[in-house]
Amino acid sequence: MSYLNFKSEYDRFPKTTIKNHKAFRGYDEIYHELNSKMNNRCVVVFDYYPGVDEEEVYELIKRFNFSLEINMHDIFKDGKTMTEQMKYNLTDDRVFGKMYYGNPVDFIDEEKLEEAKNKVEEHHGSTIIYGVGAGLVSHGDLYIYFDMARWEIQLRYRKSMPNYNCDNYDEDILKKI
Description:
Order of helices and strands: HEHEHHEEHH
Number of helices: 6
Number of strands: 4
Strand order of the largest sheet: 2-3-1-4
Mean pLDDT: 88
């Protein structure tokens, strides 16, 4: 094979066609769409991919008047405990660790998860459950998933974003990945 005639098939600007679902651009569009679908007893779930700017999304949450808020940070184990659980998967090699084949629920305090589920079930007002793994508490009446591209996560790591629920702001970028 001659590499001089090689033509890459890589699409630097991919597009995704969404069928039977809707995508919204910007928090104003999201706010207006959700506000039109909510009622006084609505359970809204904002499930995040790790790396989503949680402070930015919380600005959207504050625009609503939820009578119960459940933040997944209160349900997850702390970063130190999670790191200890994964110590056999983390290596000294700054690029190659070992794949962790567990589940997100491995890093959640099960008692706090059950407590959150009960709060949602017993509450008679509007509820927001937000954060990584929010769908483990409930899928709610409205389930919104905040996703992001891997490249964007890498850029955020370069700007000192820590790993989820950790305080490793100054960690080597390749170790974070």
